[in-house]
Amino acid sequence: MILHKDGGILDQLAALIGDWDGTLQRRYCHLSNASALLSECLEDINWVGFYLVDDSGQKLVLGPFQGKVACTDIPFSRGVCGLCARTAKSVRVDDVHAFADHIACDSTSRSELVVPLLDAKGRVVGVLDVDSPKLGRFTSMDQEFLEGAAAVISRLLYS
């Protein structure tokens, strides 16, 4: 379940990012606040953050996040995040231990939802990753919400 406090979360997210000046430093600042806002709004999660495509275009590198220490590099060929980056489609996994190529950064995570961030040309520039210690935590409504959040972030920071 997602908590909607004092107005729409997506509107709050857009307001946080609305003054981006185009610099890489400020982009990281806004992604940091986005991960903090999502962390406060999502129940039963233990990690939320971003992995960004590196210069090679073949792997994801850790970006701003909220949660425990995380994996720093994820090849496109591996894991739930890699699958999302390869296909440019959201991936919802009810049981990460049953996902053949899951990368376990935190052994307490049981379910995961990963949503792509796309630039103006539809290319993957990163992913929004959310983990939960609860089996089957994420619903289609959660996926729709996080896809909306990713769309706001993509439009304001990568277009």
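(the above was protein one; protein two follows)
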Amino acid sequence: MGHEQNQGAALLQMLPLLWLLPYSWAVPEAPTPVWRDDLQNHTFLHTVYCQDGSPSMGLSEAYDEDQLFFFDFSQNTRVPRLPEFADWAQEQGDAPAILFDKAFCEMMIQQIGPQLDGKIPVSRGFPIAEVFTLKPLEFGKPNTLVCFVSNLFPPMLTVNWQHHSVPVEGSGPTFVSAVDGLSFQAFSYLNITPEPSDIFSCIVTHEIDRYTAIAYWVPQNALPSDLLENVLCGVAFGLGVLGIIVGIVLIIYFRKPCSGD
């Protein structure tokens, strides 16, 4: 009897959430797409999440698992992951819907979270980190290191960079995005000018259990700048000569008189 009363009390506490449902249904729906056989299906993920840890609120938007934007709730604006997406990030037409999602998510945490505390196991994923360059490696030329973090759940992490075991300042923001299966991935960027003796490390700390993943990067198989330029010039020259030869052959072929039967 006492258990049933507790369940009834929990349901009564959830009733105030029902007033939000008509508003959520009132959000305009996108027109139904007309699919053709020659078109491929693509996935656009608009994922809102909230949690007790940091960050307490998040929104990510991805196209076929490639993140486009995350939402900075302190400034109420989209932040593009790449400069090419900056113009699209200025669109604010859906700001009311985003603020509604934020309020709804926070109320769910406040109203339902305490009722489920200790009753549902906490799902965790140990993050996996790897580091690579954004462009082909050339010593002495500016480049960007990318720290890619996968198998992340919940999305509570801090990312720090070190150069020869010394902390590095000036890294960009950490972009967190959702992927299929309700897990998350993250990207952190660091602008560098690589040298042969460099040793960089990306240190990822999972805040929920203080688990730490470390990925190292050292220069490998770099092409000297002058060698790369010579190789590209040689390839371009070879293609030019080949084009001239093919052109001459075609001219001779089409100018040859046709033999009569």
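Reviewer note on protein two: The first helix runs from residue 2 to 14.
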